[in-house]
TrEMBL record:
Pfam families cross-referenced by the UniProt entry: ECH_1 (PF00378)
Organism of derivation: Delftia acidovorans (Pseudomonas acidovorans)
Entry's family note: Belongs to the enoyl-CoA hydratase/isomerase family.
Protein name: Enoyl-CoA hydratase-related protein
GO MF, one example: catalytic activity
Highest taxon of source: Bacteria
PROSITE patterns the record matches: ENOYL_COA_HYDRATASE
Record InterPro entries: ClpP/crotonase-like_dom_sf (IPR029045), Enoyl-CoA_hyd/isom_CS (IPR018376), Enoyl-CoA_hydra/iso (IPR001753), Enoyl-CoA_hydra_C (IPR014748)
PANTHER family according to UniProt: EG:BACN32G11.4 PROTEIN, ENOYL-COA HYDRATASE
């Protein structure tokens, strides 16, 4: 996508790493229908990209994302919600099925739908001073974009209910204590830290990483017997890749593995 002021979402590709930038900085990247559609279309493209090995989500300007665009909802809440959620839900579902790990690079604020999208990432690195608020309850709404699925899995049911039902703002220390985020960094160090993580993940065994992230996400919904069967299927799929023999050979040679991602 072309980097212009009118583009609500930017897709930048550097090698095997794709960066999706929410690009409504004047509105703190509040997600409107054009941005939701652009996100869906971008993730559809990434889902078909066999060379993809890592995805980074970020926000332009002063915030990661301040939530849903309230102007979209104000005139006709029912229609506005439907138009926003259909593409957003498809994007989230597709992100969850990728082999490529997803990193959220967060700064300023992650609120409402912004926090919901952040929760879908496998790793979250945040700049010092970032604030987090699920926010929906403060508007008289329940949550969306997968927050009710992801939040209890990450922080536990009691903490999830407190975050969702009280609508209070959390700082980085609180967010890290609750495992909402992995690391807190000085703003000047955030880009480099995320780039280093993205490069490390992009050099990994992408098929195995994909199975790992899907197994972890599905485990709470399966019995032990069903999860054991799913693990066996996933391991069988990994055994059919070029990367497992490479990893074994590197282990025996006491060398760093050079994975192909397939």
């Amino acid at each position: 996508m072309t980097d212009t002021q009118d583009t609500p979402l930017l897709l930048h590709r550097e090698g095997a790493i794709a960066t999706l930038t929410f690009h409504r900085p004047a509105a703190l990247n509040a997600i409107d229908v054009p941005m939701a559609l652009a996100l869906r279309d971008a993730v559809r493209t990434l889902a078909q990209d066999r060379a993809l090995r890592c995805v980074v989500l970020e926000g332009a300007g002063r915030a990661f994302m301040a939530g849903g665009d309230l102007d979209t909802l104000a005139a006709d809440p029912v229609r506005g919600a439907a138009e926003l959620l259909a593409p957003l839900n498809e994007a989230v579902a597709l992100l969850g099925q990728l082999d490529a790990p997803v990193i959220a690079k967060v700064h300023g604020a992650a609120a409402g739908a912004g926090l919901s999208l952040m929760l879908q990432a496998d790793f979250v690195y945040a700049a010092e001073g970032t604030r987090f608020n699920l926010a929906y309850i403060n508007l008289g709404a329940s949550c969306d974009v997968g927050a009710s699925w992801a939040l209890p899995r990450i922080v536990g049911l009691r903490n999830a209910l407190e975050i969702a039902m009280l609508g209070e703002t959390l700082d980085c220390a609180q967010a890290q204590r609750l495992s909402l985020i992995n690391r807190v960094l000085p703003p000047a160090e955030l880009d480099a830290a995320v780039q280093q993580l993205a490069q490390r993940l992009a050099a990994g065994p992408t098929v195995a990483l994909g199975h790992m992230r899907r197994l972890m996400r599905a485990g709470l919904d399966r019995s032990l017997r069903d999860q054991l069967a799913a693990e066996a299927c996933a391991f069988d799929a990994c055994a059919r890749t070029a990367d497992l023999p490479r990893g074994i050979a590197a282990f025996h040679a006491k060398q760093a593995p050079q994975f192909e991602g397939r």
